[in-house]
Design goal:
alpha/beta, Rossmann fold, 6-stranded mixed sheet
Amino acid sequence: MNYSEKTLKILEKTGAIIVNSHFVYTSGKHGSVYIRKDKLYPYTLLTSKVCELIARQVKDWNIEVVVGPSIGGIILSQWVAYYLSKLTKKEILSVFTEKSYDDKEVYDRPQMFKRGYDQLVKNKRVLVVEDLTTTGASVKKVVDQVKEAKGKVVGVFVLLNRNPKEVNSELMGVPFHALSVFKADAYEPEDCPLCKENIRINTEVGHGKEYMEKIKAKN
């Protein structure tokens, strides 16, 4: 079984892959497939296994720091750095970025270094990790933050890429890799075929609840 198959099997085992509903994603786009990555994290052994898969593929990249966006990326960053430290027999640091709290929409909030973590990536070789990419916007913000902090991004590695046609090395401006690919269309609300068919938005999973509250406030 290859890395891609192992990753999908683990996600399916934890119930992280949900299909045939109407979801609102972090990006604000809509679709019928949702990868509920939070379902993975309670299973520490399975979470560690997928992170070990990443670490084994990047062990020769001479990485010094692993960075992940909060919240899920913090867990991935910790485990990947742990396995890299074991594989390379040197200490690999793990830090994270956080969303800013301002008056911007939740989808537009940037990822920022706080707690002095920008000093830990300065002049270091950095791996950026993330659980899921749909538009790639969130992880691209982390890449930009590392560069702003004078760190060198040697690559981005994600568990699952839902949009390989658009989310790639060209978009990131650095080498981009995914353990597995799970293609799923994502639509702007005004172009969403599910909306046009009046299929109820799922308010239990994803960002449907916030989306509906925003619609009600406008009306």
